[in-house]
Amino acid sequence: MTAPTKPSHTGPADPAAAPPDTAAPAAGPAVSGEPLHSPVIDWFDEHARDLPWRRPEAGAWGVMVSEFMLQQTPVSRVLPVYEQWMARWPRPADLAAEAPGEAVRAWGRLGYPRRALRLHGAAAAITERHGGDVPSDHAQLLALPGIGEYTAAAVASFAYGRRHAVLDTNVRRVFARAVTGVQYPPNATTAAERKLARALLPEDEARAARWAAASMELGALVCTARNESCHRCPIAAQCAWRLAGKPAHDGPPRRGQTYAGTDRQVRGRLLAVLREAHGPVPQAALDRVWHEPVQRARALDGLVADGLVEPLADGMYRLPLS
Questions:
Q1: How crowded is residue 148: how many other Cβ atoms within 10 Å of its Cβ?
Q2: Which residue is catalytic, options 46, 67, 128, 276?
Q3: For 255-273, what is the mean pLDDT?
Q4: CA geometry: angle at 51 spanning 50 and 52, to 5°?
Q5: Catalytic annotation on 46?
């Protein structure tokens, strides 16, 4: 396996992000990324955080694990779970040898636990199809279960230094402000954003991979969603949004996330009981975690449908074994 040369991911990823078509668009936007590349990459060389999945010893598997965990989850919450995960399962085959329920158990309180099942499925496929080594080819990555366009591009770029447009929320915000001149990108990734990202890619493969990591880190640390630090930004003098006087966002309202009282909260409480148990759990133990029976039943049914919980005879439940 090729070790990553100072890879990359910086924060919560956008799972609906860009397809990594590296070919120049036939009629792309009349914009060049060249004036942006050196300042952003030089800034990254000096200010990049020392994250475990960026170290050479993490390998492509460490990069892939981080990409799954960082989707919609802050780095601070991911770090301890990532360290424990990699210590227990340092290679895909190690995870594949375990029951999927163990992946759910180890996922802890990261949220969106279906990601744990998807990562387990990807590990099994890597073990079966690729001899236990995470593939470097984008098409082979995309063929793995649970791997979408964003994750395939991110792993190929960050772990293997390939030339791909890697669009997460942080990158989309940087491009929206610096190039498009608006405060926030659209709620969902658009074709125009994908075309712009491809147009901004450096031609050199290694430099393109570095640019992908650097622009993501800039969005995570400086060009943040709130309280952006323009005085620390290496491309502030070129930023279209800043030069326009920072016009306020005038698009559709930005989506917020709620948790308290939602089915997500109930699902989390039910899974917490199952994660902490050493064997099957009776229905009565699950009933105690939420007072509203209809919502509780709906949440439990959803966990079963998603393959996160396995129902047994006599009203018993456990994490999945297969």
A1: 17
A2: 67
A3: 87
A4: 120
A5: no
